Every structure is written in structure tokens, then in C-alpha cells.
UniProtKB/TrEMBL annotation, chain A:
Segments crossing the lipid bilayer: none
Domain PaaD zinc beta ribbon: 118-161
The organism's place on the tree of life at top rank: Bacteria
Annotated Pfam families: FeS_assembly_P, Zn_ribbon_PaaD
Sequence ranges assigned to domain MIP18 family-like in this UniProt record: 9-66
Signal sequence region: none
Descriptive protein name: Phenylacetic acid degradation protein PaaD
Automatic annotation (TrEMBL), chain B:
PANTHER family linked to this entry: 1,2-PHENYLACETYL-COA EPOXIDASE, SUBUNIT C (PTHR30458:SF0), PHENYLACETIC ACID DEGRADATION PROTEIN PAA (PTHR30458)
GO biological process, one term: phenylacetate catabolic process
Source organism of this protein record: Lentzea aerocolonigenes (Lechevalieria aerocolonigenes)
InterPro entries attached to this UniProt entry: Aromatic_CoA_ox/epox (IPR052703), Ferritin-like (IPR012347), Ferritin-like_SF (IPR009078), PaaA_PaaC (IPR007814), PaaC (IPR011882)
Protein name in the entry: Phenylacetate-CoA oxygenase
Any GO CC annotation of this UniProt entry: cytosol
SUPFAM superfamilies (UniProt xref): Ferritin-like
Length: 163, 294
């Protein structure tokens, strides 16, 4: 029998199925208490509609692996950040044609700086590798992705935006 | 599989793969929700309703733009912003509901107008219907998200662990919302004569509702350490708006204040005419089919 952690780590994200929940960094803790598996996950965005699906998928996988009692807990704090996407997860995103987020570092106290122009992040095209890419829209098909276009190969692509 | 029912044929009697539909659970399931010692729970519930209703009602307004925005990307952007706010609303209404013994759906769909505690800015009709305009919606988004971002950056230090966590989570979302509105404001204000005129008109339309955002309510005053006093946000928000308007070549409208009823406004449950129409649409389905899920 595989461990509960191995089973939970392999469950895929409903919106970015190339990633597992462990790759995405939303899997906080897996423990066994009195024969019961307790999984703690964290939402990516406040309104993330996939959070309930993640819970259901975790339950289904663990029950399927022989763990009869499964409890999924949600943890809001500390808030999820794209910095928690693993190095392996970043490679998988790029291989799937989705540009991974840059590292942003810890959030700081005090007023949040205003950006009157989109930050000129260097985002590499996942098709040809060119850094000559432009943001088309900050908001994409899901809350976590922005839309960009490559000026070298003209392909549009998605970018997991930094949060 | 029957093709008489399009949804049934899509689902194939198995709805577990629908991320956007059935089975939404309690928004705070599993979250540590102990109440801090010495906090008046009734006041805490009222405060959560204030901040939750602001997000819920504005989310409803933003959703009205879906398929009506000037470009496809903007449909998606406004819908995404609405979704973030709806998520914030769900957590805040659930927190209020723990004290009031009502769930988030009961609070969203079964309260009457006088029980809603949102500011008027969230509810006024800025389009896409008659009399509204995209410029007005951007003006409202700019003011609302600048204000809520400043509020949430302080709320991170709340003595209530749920409020602090909701704020820390929502902060980064609101930063995206504000930047989006600010960049549109500059694009429209510094664009053509027509776009400039309409962006300025949008600011004039929403400005009378700005003052209410910074008025300290008795509940906020009593919840020192838990709530943020909105009066303390004014200079920071003014500074942000000034920076955006000046980059956009727009003029800050004169400070006028929308009429109140006996000195009361949204935080007291007194709303503008637009609110009844909004609630009728938002609550219609749930009230017609009690307990409906989708
Ligand atoms: Zn390219």
C-alpha cells in the first residue's frame, strides 16, 4: 500500500491538470490520526471554484487507495503564493506550453505599490524561448493565468501570473 | 444518455468533473474559527456583513458586464475580478453566519434590502444597461479597489484570525484589480477626446459615493483592534487616486456627497433605488426554487 502522502501528492489540479496538487504547492499537510487521513490544502484564489473539486478528488483517490476515513481541511493562512509551485511543477508547465510564474519573494507590510503600466517582467515564450513577449490580458481562462503573445513566433500563450 | 436535455447529455449523469457547478461546500470548512477573547460576536458578525456585502454586491454588478464589455479580454477580466470578490464574500458571509446561525446562501439570497450593509458605491448602476458606461464602471472599480486594498492591507493585522486570513489572501487579488482599473483609467483618460470625456464623466458619476467609504460606523468604532477605521484610509487612498488621475490627465471631481436618508447610508441598511432591482435579479432563482443548486 502506498502512503497517504504519496496518494495525495499525485492528485492532479482540476484547472492545471499537468500539475499535481503537490507541484502546485496547495497541499500543505497529510497526516494520519487514529486511522483517519487528514489532508490540509490551501486555496489559490479566494474565489477559486476548483477548491471543492480538489477536496473531492483527494477523498476519491485516498478512499480508492484503501484509506476508509478521509478528512480534507482548508487552510487560508499563510496565503498561497505562486512561489510555492515546485521546480518540477515549473518544468511541467513550460513543457505544456504554459509560462511559469517568476519568483516574487515574501510579501511585505504596508501600502501595496501601484503599477500604472504592466510590470515589464521577462516572460519567455514556452514555444520558442524568446523573451520578446507582450501581455495581452492580465486575466485569462482561469483566475491564475494571464494571456501573452510571443513577438518572435507570433504564438499566443498562457502565463501563470505571479501572486 | 438522452439528448432531450442538453445538460444531461453533457454530464452523462456524472457531475463530479464540473468545477463550476454543484457541491460548493462551506467557504471556511476546516479553517480555525475560534473567536478572539473579548470580541463582541454580534458586532463582529455585522462587520463581516459590511465587508462581505460590499464584495457580494459589487461582484454582482461586475458580472453584468460579462459578454457586454468592449473586448473579449475585458469580459474575462471583469468576470475574474467578480469571482475573486465573490470568494471574499463567501468567506466573510460564512464568518458572519457562524454568529447569526445562517449559512452563506441564506445570507446572500434570503435577506431583504434593509438587511444588506454594503456601501452605495457597490450597488449603483454603472452599466452596461441604459445610463451606464464602461468608463463609469472603470471609475467605480478604481475607487472601490483602491479603498478595499488599503483596508485589507491593515486588516491583515486584525485580532480576528479569520478576518486577518481573508485579508491576507484577498490583498494580492485586490492589487491586481486596482492595477487593472488604474491602467484602464490612464488608457481612457490619456486616449481620444471621446474616451477622455467618458472617463471623466464616469468619475463625476461615482464621486458623490466616495465620502461614504471613509465614514466610521459605530460598529467599526466599537471593534477597535478587529476592524479597520475607514477614516484612517483616506490619505492613502487619496494619494493613489491622485497619482492615477494625474497620469491620466483627468480632473479630480469636486467633493460632493450623495443624499442620505436621515443621515443613514448603506452601512445602516438604507440603500439607493438601484439596490431593489439588483437584489430581485440576484435572489430570484433561489427564492423561486428554494434550496436550488447548480
Ligand atoms: Zn515564441
Amino acid at each position: 500500500m502506498t502512503t497517504a502522502l504519496e496518494v495525495a501528492s499525485a492528485v492532479r489540479d482540476p484547472e492545471l491538470p499537468v500539475l499535481t496538487l503537490a507541484d502546485l504547492g496547495v497541499l500543505r499537510e497529510v497526516s494520519e490520526e487514529d486511522g483517519r487521513v487528514v489532508v490540509t490544502i490551501t486555496p489559490t484564489y479566494s474565489g477559486c471554484p476548483a477548491i471543492d473539486e480538489m477536496g473531492a478528488d483527494l477523498r476519491r483517490s485516498l478512499v480508492g487507495a484503501g484509506y476508509a476515513e478521509v478528512e480534507v481541511r482548508l487552510s487560508l493562512s499563510p496565503a498561497w503564493t505562486t512561489d510555492w509551485i515546485s521546480a518540477e511543477g515549473r518544468e511541467k508547465l513550460a513543457a505544456a506550453g504554459i509560462a511559469p510564474p517568476s519568483r516574487i519573494g515574501p510579501s511585505v507590510a504596508g501600502p501595496v505599490p501601484l503599477n500604472l503600466v504592466p510590470p515589464s517582467r521577462q516572460v519567455a515564450c514556452p514555444q520558442c524561448g524568446s523573451l520578446n513577449t507582450t501581455e495581452i490580458s492580465r486575466f485569462g481562462s482561469t483566475a491564475c493565468k494571464a494571456l501573452r503573445r510571443c513577438n518572435a513566433c507570433s504564438e499566443p500563450f498562457e502565463h501563470v501570473k505571479e501572486i | 444518455m438522452s439528448f432531450d436535455n442538453a445538460y444531461e447529455s453533457l454530464l452523462g449523469h456524472e457531475d463530479s468533473h464540473w468545477a463550476f457547478g454543484t457541491g460548493f461546500s462551506d467557504a471556511l470548512v476546516g479553517v480555525n474559527r475560534e473567536f478572539p477573547a473579548g470580541v463582541d460576536k454580534a458586532d463582529l458578525a455585522k462587520y463581516c456583513l459590511m465587508l462581505g456585502d460590499d464584495a457580494l454586491i459589487f461582484s454582482q454588478r461586475l458580472s453584468e458586464w460579462c459578454s457586454r464589455a468592449p473586448e473579449l479580454e475585458e469580459d474575462i477580466a471583469l468576470a475574474n475580478i467578480a469571482l475573486d470578490l465573490l470568494g471574499q464574500a463567501r468567506m466573510l458571509l460564512t464568518r458572519a453566519g457562524e454568529v447569526l446561525d445562517r449559512d452563506e446562501d441564506a445570507l446572500a439570497y434570503l435577506r431583504d434590502e434593509r438587511e444588506f450593509r454594503n456601501v452605495h458605491l457597490a450597488e449603483i448602476d454603472c452599466g452596461p444597461g441604459p445610463g451606464g458606461d464602461f468608463g463609469t464602471t472603470i471609475a467605480r472599480l478604481l475607487v472601490f479597489s483602491s479603498w478595499r486594498l488599503a483596508l485589507f492591507s491593515r486588516l491583515r493585522g486584525s485580532a480576528d484570525p479569520v478576518l486577518a486570513a481573508v485579508a491576507a489572501k484577498g490583498l494580492k487579488e485586490l492589487a491586481y484589480h486596482r492595477d487593472h482599473a488604474a491602467q484602464w483609467t490612464v488608457r481612457l483618460g490619456d486616449g481620444t477626446d471621446e474616451s477622455h470625456r467618458r472617463m471623466q464623466a464616469g468619475l463625476e458619476r461615482v464621486w458623490p459615493f466616495v465620502d461614504e467609504l471613509f465614514a466610521t460606523h459605530a460598529v467599526e468604532a466599537r471593534l477597535a483592534g478587529v476592524a479597520v477605521d475607514p477614516a484612517s484610509l483616506r490619505s492613502e487612498v487619496d494619494g493613489v487616486l491622485e497619482a492615477v488621475l494625474s497620469a491620466a490627465g483627468l480632473t479630480r471631481p469636486a467633493d460632493t456627497r450623495a443624499a442620505r436618508v436621515a443621515g443613514m447610508a448603506g452601512r445602516d441598511g438604507v440603500h439607493t433605488e438601484a439596490m431593489g432591482y439588483l437584489l430581485a435579479e440576484m435572489q430570484h432563482l433561489h427564492r423561486s426554487l428554494p434550496g436550488a443548486v447548480w
